[in-house]
Amino acid sequence: MAVVLIVLPLLSGAAAFLLRDDAARRRLLLWTAWLHFLLTAGRILAYGRWGWAYSVAEGFRETPFWLPGAWEWFSFDAPGLLFLGVTSLLFLGAAHYAAAYLAEEKRDPGEKGENGFIFNNAPEAVFSGCLLFFLSAMTGVAAARHLGLLWAAVEATTLLSAPLIYFHRHKRSLEATWKYLLICSVGIALALMGNLFMGAAGLRGGAGLHLDGLLAGAEGLDSQLLKAAFIFLFVGYGTKMGLAPFHTWLPDAHSEAPAVVSALLSGALLNCAFLGVLRAAQVCGAAGLADFSGGILVLFGLASLVTAALFMLGQRDYKRMLAYSSIEHMGILAIGAGLGGRALYGALLGAVGHSLTKAGLFFASGLVLAAYRTKQIKDVKGLLRRSPAVAALWLAGFLLITGTPPSGIFLAKFVILKEAVADGRWAVAGVYLFFLAVVFAAMAKIFIETTFGEPAQEPERRFEPPRAMVRPALFFFVLVAALGLRVPSWLDAVLNLAAGAIGGAR
Amino acid sequence: MNTFAELTIVLIILLNMAMSVSGSLASCIRLAAAQGVAAGLLPLMAAGGAHGRAVAFAAFIIALKGLVFPWLMLRARELTGARKEIDPLIGYPASITLCLAAFAASAWLGSRLPLPEGGVAYIVPASLATIFTGFLLITTRVKAITQVVGYLVVENGVYIFGLALFVEQPLMVEMAILLDVFVAVFVMGIAIFHISREFDHIDTDALSQLSDWRRGEEG
User: Fold this and answer.
1) C-alpha dihedral sign at B77, B78, B81, B86
2) Beta-strand (E) ranges in A28-172?
3) Higher pLDDT, A62 or B198
């Protein structure tokens, strides 16, 4: 199944490059997204019902003759499945949004010249093709069982998403693309060093770099080298994940990319990098170094939270504000993963909630941008009168992302806080709460200003958003709110299994 | 048997220093290519017996790093009409001093790391120094192409480090990594081409519009 899920978008991506007809290409994007989602959903439900036994059976059944041993390279465990599910669901929403968005852009190109830049968009074939390749690479990250392949897949996500950021061909997006490419590639090179240290740590015991081998032989790993490995892997994947102080590429890339790409970067790509960090923590936990890895995760998680809060105060660009909110949430996930125990469950739930909510918010930000043609907060006022539908989405997203009950994010943040208090880590809990409040205040100011503020001049006319671009965000927001009320039993099972597999501190 | 390997290590270190003082873009690209070739030859000498798979893989690496990458980058340099000089942000004496300091630090670090005993002397310090040199090129040079060269030098360093640690990855993983590096150079090359078209040059210090620090201006 894993190989099918990786190859399917790869083939469609290649087909998207070849297809001449724009409408046909958009249909291909939608169909692939649906097929990928249905296969993934079936796989997750089967896992929730039959557990790992199903995975073993699947492994025996499915070893394609043209790729012997494929199961050893790519298969799913609980954490992988969880992130695959989020990615696939998100891509489904993004595909719907993108199809409508591309149609809009084609009807009305170049006119959104912001800050005096008139730009032409990249060819649509490149955009759709890269979107599909990007999905394939992210599926590869979720399925990879070998740390070397995990690395290769994460690096592939960087390279395949770079052309997406440069969809609007103008100077600002080019600058963002270049920073993204270079910072992430170099950062990821450090993760490769981490892989090598990991290999050296298991050299005596012959653990190799296969995740199963590493976990089975964790006791025999050289602890000094394993620590070095974790640090390098953390810095490498942490750069990609946007943890402060390695986050510098993130606000630029997220603010300059088209909304649908920002949504995928923030909701799916950051999770993939988080999975890389979790894999490293998983091996450390199995080797009894959970205190070491957990300490690092909590420290940098708090640093990200603080950095994001400070940069959100007085932020002038609403897409950058959303980008900093992503950094904040990655910090929260790192804190949860570092604390371990129930907090790990909270972190994984938070990852699901953040992905869906932030994707919805970025979708909404694209509509705000379409209505006002600027990303400057000071020029966006009175959204409620300009477009009530977008305003409702915009406010709902704000309430959900800051963790107002019944948002699923509230549950996640609360579980993490409870674990910090239960552990007696008062300093962590205090800093965490204080800066969450700062973030809330900073975001509340911006969202209230943009929604209710008095516009300088009378709005020209009401803005009617295309239905197809509203629906994905609405759907995600409903899901997140429902998640806070009740976590369905199969999701609860997968979350618990994933948290158990990663282990975490203590 | 190890004499050749040790000489290659010396060559790699010398190439690092040459790159840190090289003032011409083309020679910098060629020096990085030469280093890639030297690194690709290392496993054949260090392993003792050169068996089929290793030879084929080494030939592949050498072809990629010695021919394809420099060709791609020299082409990018021509297409963008980049000026010849390299425009360092710091002077050449400072560059070579930093490079030497990096080597000294690497030698100290290499002696402290609890690594498996290798046959080839100084391979760990050489690999770390190569990585540092790559970072030096990325951070202190203005041109976008030099940053790509720096990325490749970092990659060379990581590759040598893998040899030093005796970490043998399966062929499929090695190929996946190489494919990534290839695509990286390719995509960066395209990005450089676009930068030159948008900005009329490829100096990355012009890429500074996006920031949270400036007040009052757009962005």
Assistant:
1) positive
2) 120-121, 168-169
3) B198
**Is B173's CB within 8 Å of A317's CB?**
no
Task: Tell me the pLDDT band of A504, cut-offs 50, 70 and 90.
Answer: very low
Under an 8 A CB cutoff, do B147 and A311 touch?
Answer: no
- What is the C-alpha radius of gyration for chain B, rounded to an integer number of angstroms? 18
What six digits make up the tokens of A155? 């690096």
Nearest-CB residue to A209 (from B113, B135, B169):
B169
| Domain definitions of chain B by residue range | 2-204
With 0-12 / 13-18 / 19 or more C-beta atoms within 10 angstroms meaning exposed / middle / buried, residue A354 is: buried
Could you give the C-alpha distances from A195 to A146, A170, A307, A496, in angstroms and in order? 10, 37, 29, 27
Is residue B22 within 8 A of residue B139, CB to CB? The reply is no
pLDDT band at B124 (very low <50, low <70, confident <90, very high): confident
Buried b (16+ CB within 10 A) or exposed e, B9-31: bebbbebbbbbbebeebbebbbb
- Stretch (H or E) spanning B194: helix B171-199
CB proximity under 8 Å: B 16-55 to A:
none
Distance of CA A176 to the CA centre of its chain: 18
Condensed to tens digits (0 to 9), the pLDDT of residues A394-445 reads 999 999 999 998 899 999 999 999 999 999 999 999 999 999 999 999 999 9
Amino acid at B97: T
> Contact, A175 vs B210, CB < 8 A?
yes
Domain that holds residue A204: 2-502
Structurally, how many domains does chain A consist of?
A: 1
Taking Cα atoms as reference points, which of A74, A187, A79, A209 lies closest to residue A136? A74
Q: How far apart are CA B104 and CA A148, in angstroms?
A: 30
pLDDT tens per residue, range A452-476: 988 777 666 788 888 889 999 999 9
* Prediction ipTM score: 0.89
Q: How large is the average pLDDT for residues A134-163?
A: 94
Which residue carries 């942000």 as its tokens? B89
Instruction: Tell me if B155 and A152 make a contact (CB, 8 A cut-off).
Output: no
Amino acid at A483: L
CA A317 to chain centroid, in Å, comes to: 21
Residues in chain A: 506
